[in-house]
Amino acid sequence: MQSPMAFSTAVLVQVPASSAVSGWSLLTGRLVSEMPLTICLIAALGAYLLGSIPFGYLLVRFFRKEDIRQKGSGNIGATNVMRSGSKGLGAVTFLLDVLKGYGAVLLCRVWAVHAGLAPDVRANATAVAALFVVLGHLYPVWLRFRGGKGVATAFGVFLAMALWPALAGLGIFVVVFALSKYVSLGSIVSAAAFPVLAMVMPHDPRTPLETAVLFIVPLIVILKHHQNIARLISGTEYRFGKSGSTRTGTTAA
User: Do the beta carbons of residue 150 and residue 253 sit within 8 Å?
Assistant: First the structure.
């Protein structure tokens, strides 16, 4: 009679390598799908670290040897970079901030598919990544948790999660800005409109967490503009293209 160890060894020898790999993939995929909390934590950490890269600060520091936090509104986002005197760096900042929002969602989605996660777990992990990449931009650990206002990064997230509503929101921003010359007003109005557009326009089924994030992210962006809202009400908000304005917190991504 064979000992248990000898029997196990014989079985392992007889199992083809491809079957062993498939079995391992099935096992790890099953374990991962049964640990949504762990997956969400991984998605949150990865997205936060990506979102916390302060592109505006780094670009101004590298190319102009200045601290963007000491200029204009003190914000690290694209609008303040433009107002500091460098439209080119401002445009690059905006693009990179959009890409990190879009990239966080896309990378999490690809990773979740390759990890073999169940559809609902994939969707929830992606939603967590969408939220935390914006939080990373707002509160970057590298700058003592003082970041931008999340407009560009949130726009990147919206593009990845709901393309047509995001583009419609961009159209609303353009119209409001063209009429008012207030970047902050355009950002606030478009952020408020986005979740409504995301609900009424055709879309694939969403998990409750995905739907919640589509409302939470715009709400955070609007709340980060509370000082702008107060200045808009008092009539002291910075109007884009106007010189000699006082230091303000105009919207910055």
Answer: yes
